[in-house]
Structure prediction request, 636 residues.
Amino acid sequence: MKHLILGTAGHIDHGKTSLVKALTGIDTDRLKEEKARGITIELGFAHLELPGGVHFGIVDVPGHERFVRTMVAGVGGMDLVLLVIACDEGIMPQTREHLEICGLLGVKRGIVVLTKKDLVDLDWLDLVTEEVRDYLAGSFLAGAPLVALSARSGEGSAELKAELARLSDGIEQKRTDAPFRLPVDRVFTVTGFGTVVTGTLLSGGISVGDEVEVLPGGKGGRVRGVQSFGAKVERGGAGERLAVNLQGIEHAELKRGDVVVPRGLYRPASAVDVRLDYLASAPRDLRHRATLRLHSATYEVPAKVILLDRDLLKPGESCFAQLRLARPVLLLPGDPFVVRTYSPQATLGGGTVLDPDPPRRRRRSAEALELLQAAESGSDQERIRLLVESALYSGLALEDMANRSGMSGKRIEAALSPLLSAGAVLQVVKEPRIFLGRDAFAALKERLAGELNSYLAENPMQEGIGREELKSRIPKRSDPRFFGPLLASLEKEGRALSDRDIVRLPGRKAGVSLDQAGLQGMLEEALRKGWGEPPTLKELGCALNCTEKKLLDHLNLLSREGRAAKVKGDVFYAPGALAEIREKLVAYLREKGAIAPLEFRELTGLSRKFMIPLLEFFDQEKLTIRLGDKRVLRKG
Ligand SMILES: Nc1nc2c(ncn2[C@@H]2O[C@H](COP(=O)(O)OP(=O)(O)OP(=O)(O)O)[C@@H](O)[C@H]2O)c(=O)[nH]1
Ligand SMILES: [Mg+2]
Prediction:
C-alpha cells in the first residue's frame, strides 16, 4: 500500500470542504463555529483509498485570508494538491496565494478542480478553463490535469478519482528509512489514554514503544499507541496521517508547531542558511535585516533576514540568506519554508533550507557562498568537504555532519572515504569521530610548532616544553583532543620529539649562546665574590640588569653543571665557598661532637640569614642530623 498526502487549496467558499466530502463522505468541518459560519477555520482531515493500492491522507485547508497561516501548516508534507477554483468566481486572491505557497513549499504535483460546475453553462466553463490555463502557465501546475466537477450532483467525481490514481503512480512515497519526524498539527487528550498528537509523518516510521523527544522544548516521552487513518497499528510510516498517544508528556506541554523525533538525535537551531526566493508579486523590495515570519511544517517563528550577498532583494529575485530565528526550531536540509508579513498579511516568498545549524556568517564571504552553492547543487563529496572546512579549527563531528547535510550515514561514509584517502579531510578523534579539514590541520600544526619553538627560545636552559603545557596552548576555539594527532604529525616530520612528559626539538640541546656564556661567567664571579654570603637573586638582577627568572634558569643550569651549588630554591653558593664551610663544619664536629647555631656562627662568621639555610642544607644532605637545637654528624 502506497501512502500519500493529498491536500486542498483555494479561495474561500470555492468548495474545498464539499469536494473532500464528495470524494470521501467525510465532513471535515468539525467545529461548531465552522458549521455556524459555513467556513473552514481549522485544518480538516479525511482519507481515501483508491482501488490501485493508494491510500491518501487528506488535509483540507481553510480559504479565508485570515487563516492563511493555518493553511500553510497544512501544506507541509503534501504530495499532491487539489487546487480548487469555483467556476462562477474564477481566480481570486487566495487562489493565487495558495498556489504560490504550495509552490514555495515544494509541492510538485496537483490537479486543478473547477467546482460548482452546476452553476455555470458550458460557454462560461470554457472561458474559465482558458483563464485558469493561462494563469497556471509557468507555475508547477502548468499542464496539470483539470477536472470540472459538481459536489452537489457528484458529476466529475469519478473522473477526478481516475486522475488521482493516474497521477499518484508517478509519485514516490516519502522516505521510510530516515529517522521519524512528526510535526504536530493537533493536540488533545483522550480519557484513559492521555495525550494524543496528530500529524503527517514526514519521514521514517514511528512504533509503539519508541522513545521520543518533542522539539524545540526537548521534553522526552514514549509512544504508547499509534493510529493510522483511525485504525490501531504497531507502526505508522512516512506519508501517513497519524495519531500518536504519548506517555510522559502532558497535554499542556505540547502545541501545534512542535515536532516529535527520536530522542537525542536532533538539536534545534536558532539560525538557518537558506535559498530565499522572493515572489514577483511581493509589494516591495526586501531589505537586509528585515523581520518576517518563517513558516515550515506546522510551526511559525519570527526571523530576521540576513541577505548574504546583497543589501536588497527585489521582487522576483532569489539569493542566499541566513534567517536568524526568534527561538530555536528544528529544520533539516531540504526543508521548504515560506516567509510572510502580518501587517499587511501577505506571503512574500520562501525557499529551501541549505544548512540547518550554521555559524554566524560574515556577509559577502566567498567561502560561505561557496558552501551554500555546494549545499544546493554540489556533489555529496563537495558538500562534506566544505562543511568540514567551514568548521575550521573546531572540527566537525560525524553526527553534526549528518544533521547539517541531511544525508544518511551511508551517504556520508561514501563521501568521506575518498576525502580521507586524498588527505583533504583528516579524522582527529576516534570516539566520537571528529574531522578536520586539511588546511585547519596544517594551520593548527604550525601553531603548535610555533609554540614549541618560541617556548624554547624564551627558555634556552630548558630541555623541552612540558607536554601538558604545550597541549594547553592549542587555540581555545579548537579542541585539546586534537593534540595527539597534531603532535604525532609534527614528530613524523621531524619537527618535534616526545620524550616522556616533555616535548623537545630534535637536535637541539639546552644550551647557551656566547652572550649567555658571558652572563654565566659573571654569575659565577658574583657568587665567588660573595663567598660565604652570596648575593640574592634580587641583588644579582639589579647588578646584571636581568630578570630574576632568567637568572634562576642560568643558576640552575650552573648548578647542574657543578659550577654553582644550590642550597635552597634561590640561594646559590660558589662551589668552593660551600666546600670550605662544609670542611670547617666537619672538622668541628669531629672534634666537638655537636654544634649549636651560635657556635656555627662563630665558626663561620656568617649572619643568621645565611647560617640557617646552610644548616638546613647540610641536614638535607644527610651530612648532619638535628638533635634538639644541636647538630651532630650522621653516622655512615
Ligand atoms: N452549487 C454548488 N454549490 C457548491 C458546490 N460545492 C460547494 N458548494 C457550496 O459552496 C459553499 C462553500 O463550500 P465549502 O466546501 O464550504 O467551501 P470551502 O472552499 O471549503 O470554504 P472555506 O473552507 O471556508 O475556504 C457551500 O454552501 C457549499 O454548499 C458545488 O459543486 N455546487
Ligand atoms: Mg472548507
